[in-house]
Design brief:
The complex is a heterodimer. Chain A is mostly helical. Chain A contains 21 helices and two strands. The chains are: A mainly alpha, B mainly alpha.
């Protein structure tokens, strides 16, 4: 055990060294804009590089192969350690003035691509700080892609192995490259490609270069951080909002599908994937409902506005990105709750989205319907199918188990947050927004989490981690059986 | 679908049900409150309808199938629910939405009310309300113990007496009619004991009988607006708590414990012991929270009100000595979670039921173990018995649908104009068969639109019929032969 812990330490040391280099671009931005926030990034760079190098050197002889089980530990530590390290610039810098608690929250919110912020006035911050926040989400998204597509299925988390079974018949021999690093590289190219296209589109539509890159970062990462307090509403441009819709939808799809489509140079795979079809179906259905509701409650006077706003907000919240336009806060409450519920479903497996993931939701629904069917025909064998293939027992068990613990941890955090004094609506939306990695909640956590006290912030940090790590990855570390042998 | 046999059955049921209007007539005459014509009319209508149905299908004695069972069960509650509304419509001139809501709330033993001044109603009407809950409870016992396990709804197969660990060689009795008789005797006995205890503790005879009716049925209707708080008596609250908890236990266990004169059977049953632990845990958590939040001046006060509310809410009775929605911080939320957990299967309580919640939790924990030992074959066990996969599927499906119904109703109620807190409260009040809710519906449903009341009726039926039984009727596949 100890030997493998050393290997884990070595890997983490290496990761920290790599991460420290991410402090340099913001430093360059600080120099370019002369915004006076250079020092925090340089200090952070040195500190993180030092700690990383130290850990790497201490464990330098460790060369044990990591077992699958160690994967859990690595993944958790990756996010926790990077989350803490990423807090350093926030804490060191006088703008924004953040306590340690708040710094960690902001950093985690970036790396888990949640997008919830404790900062009251974003617009006045130094450009390097703004860049840093956007960059954190972009890097987080890269990590998530690898996590979701390569690591979690290997670990057998909550049905994620399902997505492997998903590839339809003729595609069976086209699996993603078996080794994690090669798979990662392929996915990162796609990720980079999407980011560049998005930035270009934003820039052509009228954003400044700085804003275009920054928002492309947080759009493809399905994060939701913005360089402005008013989020997407700042630009007041339907064109920009529609560009965002397209890229949010793309980022919310399984990146393995993007890979296969590019490899085979044909978009046919998109139409064959049942999870994708259901994902789009849900988006369309909810957009229609919201459009109708907006129009008939006179929130917007004409159909065009009702539709575009409904589309933007539905996709933004449904994929768990979390961009908002100013008017969202004045919408009828039932629409806000409907959209919040949609965020629970979240993005597709293998994307940067949050929530419980479309495929699990699809499976749960089919399960429920199947049970009713079995009451009518008790002796019929009605296995649950996705994409025409029968879902194995193991996977079904894993999904149930996931959902059971998801509900249990949600409930506990909700209780804990309510115990700190928050009203029930705010507490519910705060936990929902964080565990689903959405970002903005409702009530007093609609725009930002500035008013939340420390106890609540820590609870929400746990929520963000649990959500991003798909519950089990974190919880399994607490079971004694994991540490034995 | 054996339509004519079903109609015949309902004819008989209506005739039997019409008898239940007689006590109300007697009460009305006794207290001279002038309502007896309304009850007499209701009786006549019910008798006529019953006679028509029965006589026109006199010879259609087909044995009924499992598929018929779903329809019968749903219609039973819906039809009797409507008929119970007649006195309200005829005697008090209520509109249909209010009358049906109140009546269905009675039969499903929910206990949510649209009435704002209960104390001023005629005694016979008050009696009628209490009685429909008691009758509803009788129906629920049979439903939960004999019928749902046969239909195999949502894991209820687990309650088949012959598979329960306690009753391995001993089932209450094999046929529904005999099972019913045995359990009803128990139910009567508990009601009588409860009424006597209430009376000794100081309630008037009328109140004692009325509250005994709704305590054992875990319904929650009271003859007073202030509910149990009206009496301001610790003795009465303790008696009520005891009998509410009893009402929330599997009646099969009551039967066996009585037959074998063995109290240990309660603790030997996994579900009952979990239920009692949840109760104790809830009492501690709520009382300590109340005390720490300074909601009551002393710990004893906090304990008194905390334990009463926990008993009332866990068993989905809904009696109150305080408006729990106004309690501070996380306490209302904790109580709502207890409400979703509910009582034991095979009892009059609502909610998801303790056994299902236990199994759902175990499913989650099993996955954790599975991750560490990916090739192991781990069973989910209750007591010593492993649960079969198809039962697990069934429980799981139930849970998913329960959540969907609750979420869907919450949205619908919000679309109908309620704020989030009231919508959640209304859903908890109806689907979990609790009675009191939160926000606008914290004490009564008097202030809400008719749409919300009808949604509430749907919720109450869904909750009482364990979701599946109701939803299956909406599937086209069900109606095709």
């Amino acid at each position: 055990m100890l030997k493998r812990l050393l290997t884990v330490q070595k890997v983490l040391g290496l990761l920290l060294v790599l991460f420290s280099f991410s402090m340099l671009p913001p430093a360059v931005v600080a120099l370019l804009y002369g915004d006076g926030a250079l020092l925090p990034f340089l200090y952070a760079f040195a500190l993180i590089l030092g700690i990383g190098a130290l850990n790497w050197v201490i464990a330098i002889r460790a060369s044990h192969e990591l077992r699958v089980r160690d994967g859990f530990l690595v993944v958790v530590l990756f996010w926790v350690v990077l989350g803490l390290s990423g807090a350093i610039p926030f804490w060191l810098s006088p703008e924004p003035e953040l306590s340690i608690t708040d710094s960690v929250f902001e950093s985690l919110s970036g790396l888990t691509t949640t997008g919830a912020t404790v900062i009251l006035r974003i617009d006045g911050l130094p450009h390097s700080m703004l860049w840093y926040r956007q960059q954190l989400q972009w890097l987080g998204g890269m990590g998530i892609i690898v996590l979701a597509v390569a690591v979690l299925p290997m670990l057998g988390i909550g049905g994620m192995q399902l997505y492997r079974a998903e590839t339809p018949g003729p595609m069976k021999d086209t699996k993603l490259n078996p080794r994690i690093t090669e798979t990662a590289k392929a996915l990162w190219y796609i990720y980079l490609g999407l980011t560049i296209s998005c930035a270009l589109a934003y820039w052509l539509a009228g954003m400044s270069g700085f804003d275009a890159i920054g928002h492309a970062f947080s759009t493809i990462a399905i994060g939701g951080f913005s360089t402005h307090d008013a989020s997407m509403g700042y630009f007041d441009s339907t064109l920009i909002e529609m560009i965002a819709v397209v890229f949010m939808l793309l980022a919310g799809m399984n990146f393995a599908l993007h890979f296969i489509a590019l490899r085979r140079r044909t978009p046919v795979i998109y139409t064959q994937d049942s999870e994708l079809r259901f994902y789009l179906f849900l988006m369309i259905l909810v957009t229609i409902i919201v459009t109708l509701a907006l129009f008939y409650t006179n929130t917007y006077i004409d159909w065009e506005d009702s539709f575009t706003q409904a589309l933007f907000q539905t996709v933004s919240i449904g994929t768990t990105t979390g961009f908002t336009t100013d008017a969202f806060y004045y919408w009828p409450p039932f629409i806000e709750i409907l959209l919040l519920f949609l965020a629970f479903v979240g993005g597709c497996a293998g994307s940067t989205g949050g929530g419980i993931k479309v495929i699990r939701f699809l499976l749960l629904i089919k399960q429920g319907l199947r049970e009713i069917g079995r009451l009518i025909h008790p002796n019929a064998q009605l296995p649950v199918r996705i994409g025409g293939k029968v879902v194995s027992h193991r996977v079904v068990d894993a999904v149930w188990g996931f959902f059971s613990l998801y509900v249990a941890t949600f409930t506990l955090m909700y209780l804990a947050l309510a115990a700190t004094g928050l009203d029930l609506l705010t507490a519910f939306s705060a936990v929902a927004a964080c565990i689903n990695n959405l970002g903005p909640g409702l009530g007093t956590v609609g725009a930002h989490y500035y008013d939340m006290h420390d106890a609540g912030i820590w609870i929400l940090c746990v929520a963000m981690l649990l959500g991003r790590l798909e519950i089990f990855t974190l919880l399994v570390l607490f079971s004694p059986a994991f540490w034995r042998r | 679908m054996h339509w004519r046999a079903i109609l015949r059955l309902f004819g008989i049921l209506l005739l039997l049900y019409s008898i239940s209007f007689l006590p109300s007539i007697l009460v009305s005459l006794w207290y001279a409150d002038g309502q007896w014509p309304a009850f007499a009319t209701s009786l006549l209508i019910t008798v006529s309808a019953g006679l028509i149905l029965w006589l026109s299908n006199l010879r259609k004695r087909h044995p009924l199938s499992v598929r018929d069972g779903f329809l019968i069960v749903t219609l039973f509650w819906a039809v009797l629910g409507m008929l119970g509304a007649l006195p309200f419509i005829i005697g008090l001139n209520w509109d249909i939405a209010d009358a049906v809501f109140e009546s269905i709330s009675g039969f499903t033993t929910t206990g949510a009310t649209v009435i704002e001044e209960i104390d001023r109603l005629p005694k016979s009407i008050l009696y009628h309300r209490q009685q429909i809950q008691w009758l509803g409870g009788m129906g629920v016992i049979v439903l939960a113990v004999a019928i749902l396990p046969l239909l195999g709804v949502g894991g209820m197969q687990l309650y088949r007496a012959e598979t329960s660990g306690v009753a391995k060689h001993e089932k209450p009795t094999p046929r529904i009619a005999e099972t019913a008789r045995a359990l009803w005797t128990l139910y009567f006995a508990l009601t009588a004991a409860c009424a006597l205890s209430f009376w000794i503790a100081g309630m008037s005879t009328f109140d004692a009988i009325g509250h005994a009716f709704t305590t054992v049925a875990t319904g929650g209707f009271s003859t007073h607006d202030a509910s149990i708080a009206y009496f301001d008596s610790i003795a009465i609250e303790l008696i009520a708590s005891f009998f509410m908890l009893a009402g929330g236990i599997n009646f099969v266990i009551h039967f066996l414990a009585w037959r074998k004169r063995n109290l240990w059977l309660y603790l030997n049953d996994t579900e009952v012991s979990a239920y009692l632990l949840i109760f104790l845990g809830g009492v501690l958590a709520v009382s300590i929270s109340l005390f720490l939040a300074a909601a009551y001046p002393s710990f004893l006060e906090a304990l008194r009100h905390g334990s009463f509310q926990v008993a009332s809410i866990l068993t989905s009775t809904g009696f109150s000595t305080a408006t729990f929605g106004l309690w501070p911080l996380q306490i209302p939320l904790l109580l709502i979670m207890l409400s979703f957990t509910g009582g034991c299967g095979g009892s009059t309580a609502g909610g998801i039921k303790v056994l299902r919640v236990l199994i759902l939790l175990k499913l989650g924990l099993r996955q954790l173990k599975q991750l560490t030992h990916p090739h192991a074959l781990i069973n989910v066990k209750i007591g010593q018995r492993p649960i079969m996969e198809d039962v697990l599927f069934s429980i799981w499906g139930f849970y998913v649908l329960y959540v969907i119904v609750c979420l869907g109703l919450t949205l619908a109620m919000m679309a109908a104009g309620l704020d989030l807190e009231s919508a959640i409260g209304a859903v908890v009040a109806t689907v979990n068969l609790l009675g009191p809710g939160l926000g606008v519906v914290a004490t009564t449903f008097a202030e809400v639109d008719d749409v919300v009341k009808w949604l509430g009726v749907f919720g109450m039926l869904a909750g009482r019929l364990e979701i599946f039984t109701l939803l299956i009727l909406f599937l086209p596949a069900y109606w095709r032969h």
